[in-house]
Amino acid sequence: MKRKSLTLAGILTAIPGSFAFAQEGVLNSGDTAWIIVSTALVMMMTPAGLALFYGGMSRYKNLLNTFAMTFVAYCLASVIWVVWGYSLAFGPSIGGFVGGLQHLFLNGIDVNSISGSIPTIVFALFQMTFACITVALVLGSAVDRMKFSSWIVFTLLWVTFIYCPVAHWAWGGGWMGEMGALDFAGGTVVHINAGIAGLVLALVLGKRIGYGKDAMFPSSISLTALGAALLWFGWFGFNAGSALAADGIAASAFLVTNTSAAIGALSWMSAEWLVNKRPTVLGIASGIVAGLVAITPAAGFVSLPASLIIGAVAGIFGFFSVAILKHRLGYDDSLDAFGVHGMCGIWGALATGLFANPAVTEGASGLFYGNPGQLWIQIISIVATIIYSGIGTVIVVFVTKLLTGGLRVEADDEIQGLDHAIHGERGFELL
To answer: What is the pTM of this model?
Structure first.
């Protein structure tokens, strides 16, 4: 099929991140069922997979606080999305930068509205889960020291003014999609966006008390490993669901997603084993996520051999970003949101420009398939996302500080632990 521009004309008909389009305006029950299942899978990634993954890596005295901040991010983003977020991301484009407000409260979308071959309501819900997990990923840089009230305000502002415009650029008829940037399921929109925002938040918050001096052991690697498994499972909805059809591209995206995650885990494990002389469960779990992150923008465009390369590089790249780069630069990214999502997201977006294969999706060709211009387009999309997310997050942080009187908890509360200081609860009943 020939490429169609990602635009809206009242009711969305394009499949974001893909060149594959179902027959417009004709409901397909198989496609609908698959996207409903995919939506449920992606929904599970935030309040289940990510909460466990992040919660297990946080210190025992902040486990419940990490859960609470993940849950509230999902809840807030869900409400924002159906009230105004969807309209900003997928409403009729205003200058290629953001959508209009025609779809406030999902106005104009009812049970009979069709986008491609699925109900528009289902499409809106599927995209909602992406907004939810993206802002929740940012949390990884801020746990152990950010005020709960500040996180609530930050989430509201960031989803509205950072996530929604970038989603519009790539998927909703904005300038990035019109330029031809390839982002099948969220390399720029989700991972680079969240990773850069996390880095900004970590730098503004400053280091945790005792960072670099005191041991900061994870509360439960077992919870983190379980969270990684749930993320891996949910990611099949994330990537294969982004085909927005139960078709061959969805099947291919499923295959390369699993392969990249598997080789990513093995390459991270091998790098860690070689450098630190032991393979850790945390390293294997982190490698799984690194491979998943890197394949996300490429999932619908690359073949199986390319996924092996993408995942293997992501595992090594992620390990050195976390184990070496962070410590040499001296920033305190608590749970490595930037090191894994930001850095591996950048690699994945670049890899899409290298390995996009027209045999997988017609019209999508990367450097190795005779289209060097695609790599340049990918670079532009990466740089634009970094600049906008970085500067925009600084502004959001500044406004949040004004509205809440500061981002960081009191020193006594940080030392005591946020589970008790903020929530009056304990994650573990330790004697």
So the answer is: 0.94
